Amino acid sequence: MTSLPGWLLDNTDSLPSLRFQGSDVLGPIVYLVEREGRPLYVGSSAKGLRRPLGQHHALTDLLPTDTFYVWKFPDYIAASSFETHLITRLNPSRNARGTAPGPLLEPWHEDAI
Q1: pLDDT digit string, tens, across residues 18-60
Q2: Quick one: DSSP state of residue 32?
Q3: What is the CATH class of 23-106?
Q4: pLDDT in tens, 55-96
Q5: Which of 54, 81, 82, 85 has the fewest CB atoms below 10 angstroms from its CB?
Q6: 3-state DSSP helix/strand/coil percent for the chain, to nearest 5?
Q7: Helix, strand or coil, per DSSP, at residue 112
Q8: pLDDT higher for 15 or 4?
C-alpha cells in the first residue's frame, strides 16, 4: 500500500468524502443519476453499490457534475417497487421506455422522493 503524503493526512477535513459501512453498500438499493437536473437513469441492485459502481451499461460515462442518489431498502421487493415508481414518475432518458421492472407493490407517497 502506498503511503499518503503528510500534507494530505494533515488536511483530510478539507477533502470531500463519502463514508459507508459494509451494511450500507450491501443489500437492496435503488439509485438515480441526474444530469443537469434531469433524471438520466434509475436502477436497482440486490447487491448494493457493486452494480451501479461497476461497469454498468448506463453509467459508464458519469460526469463530475452528475448527481448520484441512493436509497437503501430492507428487501429487494420493496426496492423493485420503488424503482418502478421512480421510472414511471421521472421517465429517465436512459431507461428503456415501457420496461419498468414490475408492478408497484405498495403505494409510495409523492413526498418520498
Answers
A1: 677 777 678 899 999 999 999 999 999 898 887 777 765 567 7
A2: E
A3: alpha beta
A4: 655 677 888 898 889 898 999 999 999 999 999 999 999 887
A5: 54
A6: 30, 20, 50
A7: helix
A8: 15
The number of residues in the chain equals 113
What is the residue-averaged pLDDT of the chain? Answer: 75
Neighbouring-strand partners of residue 70: 31
98, three cell numbers: 415501457
Set of cell numbers at residue 13: 477535513
- C-alpha span between 71 and 67 (Å, rounded): 13
Domain ranges for the chain = 23-106
Question: Which pairs from 21-24 meet CB under 8 Å and 24+ separation?
Answer: 24/48, 24/72
Distance CA(76)–CA(29), nearest Å, equals: 8
Residue pair 101/80 in contact (Cβ under 8 Å)? The answer is yes
Backbone torsions φ then ψ of 32, nearest 5 degrees:
-130, 135
High-pLDDT (> 70) share of the chain, %: 65
pTM of structure: 0.69
Spatial CB neighbours of 57, under 8 Å, sequence gap ≥ 6: none
